[in-house]
Amino acid sequence: MKIKVFVMPKRNVLDPQGVAVGHALESLGLSGLRASRVGKVVELDVDGPDTPQFRAQLDKLCLDLLSNPVIEDYHYEIGGA
Amino acid sequence: MNIAVLQFPGSNCDQDAFHLFGSGLKLPTRFVWHKDTRLGEADLVVLPGGFAYGDYLRCGAIARFSPVMGAVREYAQRGGLVLGICNGFQILCEAGLLPGALIRNSSLEFRCMTCELKVEDAGPAFNPGVLGPRIRLPIGHGEGNFRIDEAGRGKLVANRQVLLRYVDNPNGSLDDIAGVRSEAGNVFGMMPHPDRAFERYHPSCDGLAVARAILAARFPGLIRKIA
Question: Global pTM?
Answer without folding.
Answer: 0.93
